[in-house]
Every structure is written in structure tokens, then in C-alpha cells.
Amino acid sequence: PGKRYPQFIHCRTMAQSRSLLLSIAVNALLVGVLLYSVAVNRTQEGSLQLSAVRGKIAAPRTSFQNAVSRVSRNQLPSSSRKAVAQAFLSNPDMVPDMGKRKLMNNLVLAAVAPVVASAGGCYLYYFYPPQTGGGGGAVGALDALGNPVSAESWFKSHKKNARDLVQGIKGDPTYLIVNDDGSTLNSYGLNAICTHLGCVVPWDAASNKFKCPCHGSQYAPDGHVVRGPAPRPLQLAHVEDDNGKILLSPWTETDFRTGEKPWWA
Question: Across all residues in the chain, what is the average pLDDT?
């Protein structure tokens, strides 16, 4: 798949990291509770067995054991009732306490739910169409390292009809287009984020098109769609050379490619 621009996925990466840390913390809590429960259960079991052997106390019985005893007295022969009573008295933990079982089930659910939710959320968010740009005033174009881009340095490394990326509005990767004279920029730039699923679309100079390597969408030099599955043209941005400083500002007027209101406005 095509590479996503680092600044564009920064927020997603932070959200996924927080979800992962939360899942690890909840699972660590679950493990601690399980170990504590096992330790306490073994301690109580050892104490009850030692006391029963010494004859000091009678082992406590659960409500479930009491119910079974009542049924045994009414429905079982005397020999069977005696065998059942001896079995319960010799092993008071034969039937687990239902409250403890429900607690452990809830702890397991609480541990699994954040993991499933974080993984499922990231998966579904991948298919959510990007809503980028819009709003705000002009911003200076930046290179991949975050340094301001000047017109002089840009024209030294880019010839006529060149299309290359800068960081634009909200940090989105944006194509600057050099005019045929090789010394001026086009009045508009193109947001490089594919309108299908958010990949960064590279410029293919050989075919004179923007081609998305992820799912095959293609755009004309001005950014309108020539091949799906992309549903909308690339987003426009105003480009201005302000005394050698390249500025980008939101495009809010009619989209000249469709004659309609911009879908991103």
C-alpha cells in the first residue's frame, strides 16, 4: 500500500498507543486479582482443612450446599444422605461460590473489552473517509523536516510542470505545481490525500496522472477523478508567493473542476 504522510497519522498513532497501554494495564490488573484470589482461596482451604482435622471448628457451608442437604434429607435414602453429607463436609469447596464466579467473569469481560474495542476501532476508522483541511487562514509551506519552504529554493530543485509535496494546511501533504515558465507556481495546490481511503497519492510524471497504489484510483493533473474507486476530486488550496515565502490558504469558493461547492468546505 501507499505510504501515509507522517504528520497525517500522528494523531492516529497516539490514540492507538493509548489504547494499547490501557489494555495492558487492565490485563495486568486482572492477573493481579486472579493471583490474589488463588492465594486467598488456598489459604482459606488450608485453614479449614487444618481446623477440621483438629476438630476445633466445623467447616462453613454455602447456601447451595444447604439446599442440596435439604433435598437429600427429603428424597434420598438414609445411606445416600449420609454419603452426600460426608462428601460435602469433607470438601466444603466442592461447589464454587456463585458470587465469586460472576466476579471473575466480569473481570475477564473488562479485560477483553478494551482490547477488542481498540482493535475494532482502528479497523473501522481505516474505512472512514478522511475529512481534512478547511477553516483557518494562510499557513506557510513546510518541507518534510518542518522547515519553511521558500520560492527561491523551490525553483532551484523543481523545473516546469513539476509536482512535489510540502506540508500544507493542518499538516496535510499538498502538491505545489510549477508553471510552464519554470519560475512561478500555479495559483492552486492539491491535497495529496486520496478521497477513497486516505492514502497519499503519488504523482506519475510518465502517465501525467496521480495514481494511488493502494486501490487503483487515478486523478488528472488538476486533481479530478479519472478512475475510481475514489468518489471525489483532490482537495484544492490557494497558493501564494508572498515575497519569496510560499503560503497556502483554504479554498472555499466554487470548485472550478466540478462547478459545484467544494466537498471539503
Answer: 76
